[in-house]
## 1
Amino acid sequence: MSTGPTGVPEVIPLSAGELLDAVDALADLMLDTVAGGASIGFLHALDRATAARWWRAQATAVREGRLSVRVARDGERIVGTVGVSFADKPNARHRAEIVKLMVHRDARGKGLGRTLLTAAEEAAAEAGVTLLLLDTETGSPAETLYRSAGWTVIGVVPGHAADPGGTLRPTTFLYKHLGNRRPLEKDSRKDHGRPAGKDHGPVPAAVSQRPGPAP
């Protein structure tokens, strides 16, 4: 995969098998993100083996439709990623969470973060989600991105999470409404609408009639 018509790397979804194939590249991206100071749940002591193990553990959630992972590729190199984590409670199937949005430091300043965020929002909407949630370090470039993309601040929790250096920082919680769509039935997000086959489950009813690539 390469860049799209605007020169921004193309964002594509990964199946569980494709994620496993990309573990090393995703681990390198995570290491660069943490080294750059982004608060994504890890400290500077993160090593490549731990990062790879974390990514490998996400394959089951992708296979079961609880998580959708998208990556941005520049040639054969992964320079960005974002996830959509779907709620698993029966009364919460209308909502999901944006997780682990990462852009490699040498790919920043080109609009890739917004491209990844938009792709995640579109994937969630196609899956029938009407409400998205996320959290991020207060005052970070990520918060600026989310606010500029129309997300609404719920509030700020002081000392909620440590930055990669171990210092406790405040966290801003945000939400975004995606509009009115029919709620999904139980288990209908398995493999998030991708065609049946290896690592893929049935196409969800909420997306099976939609044209274009499945989320």
## 2
Amino acid sequence: MTKKSELAKARYKKGLDFENEVAKYMTEVLKYDDVEVRPRVSGKISDRGYEIDVLAKINDRGGDTIKKIAIVFFVTAIVLIFWWAFDIVGEWAIIIALVLLVGSIAYVLISKSFVAKYIWIECKNLKSKTKRSHIFELTQKYKDYKQNKYVKWNIINLMFFSVSGYDSDAKEFAKENGIICYEKADNEEFVKTNIYF
């Protein structure tokens, strides 16, 4: 193995280790429901798409409630159909049952995209501070992803994690774009850096 490939392999492992650490933090400390490390998404402009370092998922509890109501409607529709089949109720019940059935099936099938919200997390394990250009690049990838007709996940926000902190331009740019930033403190714990929004 050449020295160049050894360095590339070490960088890859260093980045992946940090991303796994962030993923663990998202579920254990920030209580996100699920995380995925290094999924790929397509953009409108980019043919190859983009690799998201960490994708964190949080379920919308209100959406879960609506899904449960849809299941109750589905069961009610089935009961009404059986009652109609045995002449317990009139023909009005079959119309109501069919409306409930079609509506509940449609919602249950597409509800996953409504009840889950995602956070796109970029991770930098650099020796130097994260720069504005790093955060700008994340915003451009996100904008390209949102312009794609086939958006896979309902990504509602961006986060940035850095081992070495951020320079002042990066902090200001993150603030202007609503990006939540974390960095590692001296005690190796993650600390939210831009607490003013």
## 3
Amino acid sequence: MIKLAAFLSGAALLILELMGVRLLTPAFGSSMIVYSAVIAVFLAAMAIGYFVGGYLGDRAPYRSTLALALAVGAVLLAACTPVAPPVAEAFAAARFGGYWAPALAAFAVFTLPSAVLAFAPPIAIRLEMKDVAHSGSVSGRIYAISTFGSIVGTLSVPFLITLMPVSIGLYCVAGALVVYAALLLLITEARVV
């Protein structure tokens, strides 16, 4: 279950990233500037999320910490759909930031959800860690699983976009994360020593 959390967070991050471009496109177009802005914001937010997730994993090494991170990330991910278009339009209409307007809009909309979703891998590593002698293999395994989730998420975006509007796809991902977080909470709580 813990490894699946890393997989799902990786998938959700890349689905949100690619669909995030689609959410900003009506205001800014689909230029390389928009793609670069979204990718840069996600990378920065993920770095912050990994750092904070590591801190949380050390301070509260519980399945419920992981479940809460996924649930909050899912709620924030779902909020992107109604928030992104008006925020992007506001930045575009205000002509605030010029070249940087897509980055500022992406920062305003996607930083918090992507950072919170990035909490999952370091918390999962802490929960899977049985002894420090295997820390390298445990962390490598969790990040490989998370990256594989990102690949699956990336490849699923064309499927999601052709089947349903961007907003419904994001809500489906958010719903799946919330259900998984609830399942984690139902499993016996085990503190990692």
